[in-house]
Design goal:
The chain is mainly alpha-helical and 71 residues long. It has one domain. It is built from 3 helices and no strands. The longest helix is centred in the C-terminal third of the chain and has 27 residues. The two termini are 15 Å apart.
Amino acid sequence: MRLDIRIPIGALFAVLGTLLAGYGLAGGPALAQRSLGIDIDLWWGLVMLAFGALMLWLAWRAGRGSSGGPP
């Protein structure tokens, strides 16, 4: 069984992105005031979540294609 490095990387980024985006949503406007009104935690959390989802999707797609054909 081969370990695809995209699975733990994708899971890590997805979990951390979810936590960061949740913190950005729960933080309120007081935290956004320090960064010129832009909710940096929310946006970077969403970027990290999207990257983690991309890594997991690529790992799933690679695993699905390699098990069906002849050696």
